[in-house]
Amino acid sequence: FQVKSENKKTIWNTEEVPEGSEFDDTWDPREKPEYEISFKQHVGTEDVFFGMTGKDPSTACCEDIVIKIKLPETKYSDITLDIQDKVLDLRTPKKKLLLHLPYPVNSKEGRARFLSEEEILEVTLRVSRKFDFINFS
């Protein structure tokens, strides 16, 4: 098995390097914040009462990923957030989080809000799925 490459001196292909590895810095002394990942789906009466759409409570039927990150003693202006299709990169002066997401997301249509009273950053990302018999909208 041989892989053709543009440059003969390269030791791996770009497909072999995982997305987001350019953000990973093992020598960064900042601590990793606590976070929670949950999934959200939009259901209507046809789903709840009649089961017409075939949706179930599994993550395969969810449309959004909601990530809640605890950032104590942090101001909104100190947060740097970068979202790629499979990676969330969060940086503050005291905390750093590089999170490989469980599903590919649409990085252009996400939204984030900082709940200052609870000191939590809530990031909602739309999951990018191929259309199938469950995810058809």
Beta-strand content estimate = 25-35%
CATH architecture assignment name: Sandwich
> In CATH's first tier, which class applies?
Mainly Beta
Mean pLDDT: 81
Spell out the helices and strands N to C.
EHEEEEEE
Domain PIH1D1/2/3 CS-like: 32-127
Region (Disordered): 1-27
Pfam families: PIH1_CS (PF18201)
Family: Belongs to the PIH1 family.
Characterization of the model:
The chain has 1 helix and 7 strands, in the order E-H-E-E-E-E-E-E. It has one helix spanning 45-48; strands spanning 35-40, 64-70, 80-83, 87-91, 96-100, 111-115, 120-126. The protein is flat, with a radius of gyration of 19 Å. The mean pLDDT is 81. InterPro entries: DNAAF6, PIH1D1/2/3_CS-like. This is PIHD3 protein. Pfam families: PIH1_CS.
Jot down its keywords.
PIH1D1/2/3_CS-like; three-stranded antiparallel sheet; Immunoglobulin-like; 1 helix; four-stranded antiparallel sheet; mainly beta; 137 residues
